[in-house]
Amino acid sequence: MGRHRNKVKDTIKAALEPLHDGATIAVGGFGLCGNPEALIQGVVQKGIRDITLVSNNAGNLGKGLATWLKAGLIKKVILSYLGTNEDLHTRMASGEVEVQVVPQGSFVERMRAAGAGIPAFFTPTGAGTVVAEGKETRDFAGRPHILEQSLPVDFALIRAQVADVFGNARFWRTARNFSPVMATAAKTTILECDRLVALGDIDPDDVHLSG
Q1: What is the signed CA dihedral for 29, 154, 193, 172, rounded to 10 degrees?
Q2: Total-model pTM
């Protein structure tokens, strides 16, 4: 393998070793599609607390990230969809979990901006609504825009269909969803994959996320 480093961990516990109380963690998946299921369960077993979770919808039907809610690991959620997630609705109503709802396009762009080193950006999305409360507003071409801050995270937990030992990854169709952009916004990305291959087995043109 020459100078290329093997990044594979032998166990889920070893992969999650850097996670700590109070961390901001982005987790890939749209609904229950593309969730890193093994890593999600591993965090429950690790038992870290006071997590700020960044995800599309924080699980559903008691599954996926809803297990973090049930275990009391989360203090805040930044998401784009509440839906019928009763585990989150009840905890939001009781004040146990703080919830910040972000328009989905802004949600993705905030993370993309973080990965690109852009601290903030103006967008027309949410102007004139509750989304704009407390945010700077400017007119561009006669249309109001609000200032959104980038959204860097400490860790991203994502799932790929196939990855090599250096971390180059390819996703399965719509299961790709938020995962690549979350990885760019994170200081550390922890990836689980359905199939692990040797370096070079994925054609460079087929790599969705570089290691």
Answers
A1: 40
A2: 0.95
